[in-house]
Amino acid sequence: MASATGVSGRLGWFRRAPQDTDARDAEIKYYTASQFQLIWWKFKRHRLALIGTFILALFLVIAVLAEFLAPYDPFNRNAEYLFGPPQAIHFFEDGTLHAPFVYGITFAMDPVSFQLSVKEDTSVRIPLQLFVHGDAYKLFGIFPTDIHLFGVEKGFVHLMGSDKLGRDLFSRILFATRISLSIGVIGLFIAFFLGLIIGGISGFFGGAIDNVIQRFIEFIRSIPTLPLWMALAASLPKEWPPLQVYFAITLIIGLLGWTHLARRVRGKLLSLREEDYVTAAKIAGSSDWRIIFRHMLPSFLSYIIVDLSISFPYMILGETALSFIGLGLRPPVISWGVLLQDAQNVRAIALYPWLFAPVAFVVLAVLAFSFVGDGLRDAADPYSR
Predict the structure, then answer these.
(1) Is 159 within a domain?
(2) 40 inside domain
(3) Within the chain, what is the greatest distance between any pair of CA atoms?
(4) Fewer CB within 10 Å of terminal CB in the chain, N or C?
């Protein structure tokens, strides 16, 4: 009996051996993984962060391929469709499935308001086609072509309606995505380098240098952000060309967005400058700049990345707010804020609500960066539960 029990026990051990091996391999993989691998594994478990990453990747594709994705040139006018409402895409007609199409448009005078009302002409079916020829452009600014992702050969299609000049709102929003996101990225890099350098100097050297820098930061942060942006943007000369205004607005947003990161960097360096590896680097003859940028800052790089991802929405909102009130970018530059200038009056709210479509893109961008920032913040400490 004992022998049978022993054999059974050994057989049981053999039956559990593959599971034990898998668990042991998983444990070895976890404890031998790099810091980046641990952060990535934890980030993947944050579903909202993954959704935000997908949205940001989609925005990146839009920014790079705006000319190809947009059915029309953003400045192309359709005089027959001023303030035109969005056209719906249809797949069924009389219970039969068709390739995607839009109906033609007819205009009728409203006898009460004397406004032209737009109605679908169900007798005219306009099929949507892929890779159609349209307005000429240069892909990536290099390759001349006129191929667009979708469009129509006859008639027109305005998925998000048109503005007061008959320009396709969907195409203009795609081009505005490039401008608004690029301002946020460039402004963020300016704030990033200023925050690292100024915060690093303040935290590492301390003393009088730290006091001067901290008082300067407190002075900047004591001024309300939006009025300060408005004052600086309003001081830009009206005769400046759009490109010069674009770089000026980007510089203003970047120069005023570094204080939070500088405070965080300073606090981290104050706690790290007495660590043994910093002392060893000093004894080895390393310069102060090498100790800061080679040894100290990389030790909490993940937290810096989190701070940047959380700060990005404020850059976008800053540009949008300035352009919306007419103190930021100005036409012919196209940004989300510039597009929203057409929706500032009560008439737009009552009669042309599709002019608020850029708001959806602003909200999506802000939420996406917030989700990614939350995911990175949780993943920055991969050993926490």
Answers:
(1) yes
(2) no
(3) 102
(4) C
Q: Are 156 and 86 in contact (CB under 8 A)?
A: no
Q: Are 52 and 369 in contact (CB under 8 A)?
A: yes
**What are the φ/ψ torsions at residue 113 (nearest 5 degrees)?**
-95, -10
Of the candidates 58, 61, 120, the residue with the CA atom closest to the CA atom of residue 89: 120
Round the average pLDDT of the chain to a whole number and report it: 82
Q: Specify whether 272 is located in the same domain as 349.
A: yes
Q: Whole-angstrom Cα distance, residue 257 to residue 97?
A: 53
Residue 36 lies in a domain: no
φ and ψ of 64, to 5 deg: -80, -40
Could you read off the pLDDT of 10-66 as tens digits, one per residue?
Answer: 444 444 455 566 667 666 766 666 667 777 778 888 889 899 999 999 999 999 999
269 CB neighbour count, 10 Å cutoff: 24
Whole-number Å distance between alpha carbons of 265 and 299 = 11
Kindly state whether residues 96 and 206 are assigned to the same domain.
no
Neighbours of 117 (CB within 10 A): 11
- What's the CA gap between 289 and 279, in Å, rounded? 14
pTM comes to 0.81
Domain boundary among 164, 195, 223: 164
pLDDT in tens, 187-200: 888 888 888 889 88
Domain residue limits at 102 = 79-164
Measure the CA–CA gap between 76 and 58, rounded to whole angstroms. 25
Supply 27's token pair.
């444990």
Q: Is residue 353 part of a domain?
A: yes
Handedness of CA 166, 171, 173, 331 (dihedral sign): negative
pLDDT in tens, 339-384: 888 887 777 877 888 999 999 998 999 899 888 888 877 777 665 5
Does residue 202 contact residue 209 with C-beta atoms inside 8 Å? Answer: yes
Taking a C-beta distance cutoff of 8 angstroms, is the pair 177, 57 a contact? Answer: no
